[in-house]
Amino acid sequence: MSIDVLQEQIRKMKNPVMVGLDPYLPILPQHILRDAFEEHGQTLRGAAEAYYRFCTELLDRLCGIVPAVKIQSACFEALGADGITQMQKISRYAKEKGYYVLIDSMRGDVGNVAEIYAQAMFGTISVGETAHKLYDCDALTVNAYLGSDGVKPFLPYCKHDGKNVFVLLKTSNKSSREVQDLLSGDRVIYTAMADLTMRWSTDLFGKYGYSELGAVVGATYPQTMRLLREKYDRLFFLVPGYGAQGGTAKNVQFAFDRFGHGAIIAASRSIICAWQKSDSDGTDYLDYAEAAALKMKADIGKNVVIL
Amino acid sequence: MSIDVLQEQIRKMKNPVMVGLDPYLPILPQHILRDAFEEHGQTLRGAAEAYYRFCTELLDRLCGIVPAVKIQSACFEALGADGITQMQKISRYAKEKGYYVLIDSMRGDVGNVAEIYAQAMFGTISVGETAHKLYDCDALTVNAYLGSDGVKPFLPYCKHDGKNVFVLLKTSNKSSREVQDLLSGDRVIYTAMADLTMRWSTDLFGKYGYSELGAVVGATYPQTMRLLREKYDRLFFLVPGYGAQGGTAKNVQFAFDRFGHGAIIAASRSIICAWQKSDSDGTDYLDYAEAAALKMKADIGKNVVIL
Question: Around Cβ A278, how many Cβ atoms within 10 Å?
């Protein structure tokens, strides 16, 4: 896909929401754990199979409602090889269902290492004369503290293959100010990062005016978001921090341009763990997830009209 | 281990060198690839098995010469689950051989995600009532652009289990200046990061005076390194960029304190690919690696005496 296709999917579904899949065992319904442990024991394989079922059932249920999905890489890495096997399967499953798939790994490698990582995530890995497709996701998050060297290896994929990279500007967590808000001349670090992202964006602008390189801007800092939206009107925003972290529909309205374009709002726990806020035993967790996703869509829709 | 044990291993071997294992197919000797492909075909499994043989043979050969090893996570992630399987095995193999093992993943997650990642890397992952040990490494690199939230989940392991985290301050790549060298008041960003690292270090100082939280400072910026060494005399430096990237033995002398303590110099390609700079067919790659490691030790020893 590309940032244009993402925007079109959002328009089609009238829903600028990206559901976050960051499974860990305490948020999984008991019946899923029980079945997985019965088949595979209390093993990493068992846990990973439970993640797969949980995530793919959510993908089935939210298909057609939510255009995009964010897979939290570290959650799967934490289960070792079994976790990675399932992450690859979930990524492919989501693609086949038509989702825009972002893998949230916040990497910041450089040189050869970043090149190999980009190949694995966006392209193919060649072993001898055989090319292997591994993750084939649409987008990644990248931590650009190392500067251009950490981003350039991804740019050919953005230019030629419709892949996207979202650079961390201002993250949703409380301590993000410690580094990101430091003042440097007439800029703060997150605007310096935005300026770099614009510089890397040469030739990467799509038909809606947005760059294939996006920006991560947290829902928890609405004034910052508003300023960034005004100043960087060609950077598509990926907005984490909605729901469980405190970001509201009112906050995130500032992420959008006057056409209701240019942003997607990510939410994970408030959707995939919605059942835990009820007295449900978890067997109907999909109903709660769907209701939460529809409510989020409606809440955002009160302030944002997508043209 | 802990930063004290690392320092003691360095003293014992009189060698402040960490060998970097960042395999990718073009640097592997032909005979290793041939054998692996014969057994497993041109598959990701085949590539991963080749990585395992390459890395463990190097670990065997360099054992007793080099005290520490750095495993480049992204190289293994790029082979998917097969790569991760072998990375776990290589990490355990290195530990059993007595190496101090750092996994270089430069992560920058926060909250639950960082906690789960810390558990997987430093502790155990519980599945039902069963605890699984996965990577069990001694140290990680962390990108702290997200501030305290990205580092605090690791601190209990530093305090109670002798684990170490190396925070990226000033990296060895060319574009590191774009963000890291921005001026903020009377500091640059990398010193702001160093100040944060010192703040997170409360109660984490070992008997040599160094914190369990270290700092990544590139060999390619000797003047910066000298200033950082003077100002932050309680941060242990992990120094990448030696050899292939241009850092020299003369440069890295500034990383050490007057006892020759407080730093470890990482080198990867200049050791593990040393055979490629000769007319060798690669069958004797271990001889070249050993010679390069011994030469690096001798070169550093010209300027640094470890007391």
Answer: 13
Paired strand residues for A77: none
CB pairs under 8 A between A and B: 225
In the three-class reduction of DSSP (H, G, I as helix; E, B as strand; rest coil), residue A209 is classed as coil
Amino acid, single-letter form, for residue A223: Q
Residue-wise pLDDT tens digits, A42-68: 999 999 999 999 999 999 999 999 999
Contact residues, A window 194-253, toward B, CB-based 8 Å cutoff: 196
Chain B CB within 8 Å of residue A110 CB: yes
What does the mean pLDDT of chain A come to? 96
Contacts of B227 (CB under 8 A, 6+ apart): none
Instruction: Nearest by CB to B132, from A44, A72, A135: name it.
Output: A44
Give the nearest partner residue to B178 out of A128, A130, A148, using CB atoms.
A148
Q: What is the DSSP string of A99-167?
A: -EEEEEEEE---HHHHHHHHHHHHSEEEETTEEEE----SEEEE-GGG-GGGTGGGHHHHHHS--EEEE
Q: What is the mean pLDDT of residues B245-271?
A: 95
Task: Give dist(CA A162, CA A155) in Å, integer.
Answer: 10
Residue A267's H or E segment, with its range, is strand A263-267
- Cα–Cα–Cα angle for B52, B99, B165, rounded to 5 degrees: 100
Q: Which domains does chain A have, with CATH numbers?
A: 3-303 (3.20.20.70)
Q: What is the pTM of this model?
A: 0.97
Contacts of residue A26, Cβ cutoff 8 Å, sequence gap at least 6: none
Strand A68-72 to strand A17-21: parallel, antiparallel, or no bridges (unpaired)? Answer: parallel
- Chain B hits for A116, CB-CB cut-off 8 Å, are 24, 74-75, 78
Report whether pLDDT(B111) > 90.
no
DSSP 8-state secondary structure symbol assigned to residue A27? G
Indicate the residue of B44, B143, B193 with minimum beta-carbon distance to A125.
Answer: B44
Contacts with A48 (C-beta within 8 Å, 6 or more apart), sequence order:
A76, A79, A82, A83, A85, A86
pLDDT of residue B108: 87
- The closest of A55, A33, A45 to A103, measured between CA atoms, is A55
